[in-house]
Design brief:
CATH superfamily of the domain at 45-123: Winged helix-like DNA-binding domain superfamily/Winged helix DNA-binding domain
Number of helices: 6
Distance between the termini: 38 Å
Largest sheet: 3 strands, antiparallel
Structural class: mainly alpha
Oligomer: single chain
Number of strands: 3
Radius of gyration: 19 Å
Shape: globular
Order of helices and strands: HHEHHEEHH
Strand content: 5-15%
CATH class of the domain at 45-123: Mainly Alpha
CATH architecture of the domain at 45-123: Orthogonal Bundle
């Protein structure tokens, strides 16, 4: 994959806007393909996969608020997903001994096995989708995106 540069300079504001649109477009193209494959192979949605991924990382479980914060979505979005995962035996709700208002959710062994199969396929799909992206460019892009994230977070805190 080669990088292309524009010959004529453009106003900085326009450059930043084009960069933002390109970032969104790239993420959406990959996301649409991953959603399609999850649905076709596992009958799953990306939000359900994301919830299971969060719970698989925290074997002891997470509160609903922790899941929401981790995924950067509202509690309402997570509640419906958790309800269905509980009905299917993929997740359990556990009373929180420290805070009776909060409930801990944890993946069941069945849920962890299901997630492990999806995660293996997901990793293969991402590798396939990004296969033509050279490792050196991948590392450089990761560094740039990490810098963007850090700058955005520090700028948001300064506001």
């Amino acid at each position: 994959m080669t990088l292309q540069r524009r010959a004529a300079p453009e106003p900085q504001g326009m450059l930043k806007l084009r960069l933002w649109v390109r970032l969104l477009r790239a993420v959406r193209v990959v996301e649409v393909e991953l959603r399609r494959r999850l649905r076709a192979e596992f009958g799953e949605t990306l939000p359900r996969f994301d919830v299971m991924a969060a719970l698989a990382r925290q074997k002891t479980g997470m509160t609903m608020t922790e899941v929401s914060r981790f995924l950067m979505v509202s509690n309402g979005n997570v509640t419906g997903i958790i309800d269905r995962l509980v009905q299917e035996g993929m997740v359990v709700r556990i009373a929180n001994a420290q805070d009776r208002r909060a409930t801990v959710v944890r993946a069941t062994p069945k849920g962890l096995r299901h997630f492990a199969r999806m995660a293996q396929a997901h990793e293969a799909w991402v590798n396939e989708i990004l296969a033509r992206f050279p490792p050196a460019q991948g590392h450089a892009l990761i560094d740039l995106l990490d810098a963007l994230t850090a700058a955005t977070r520090s700028g948001a805190k300064a506001s």
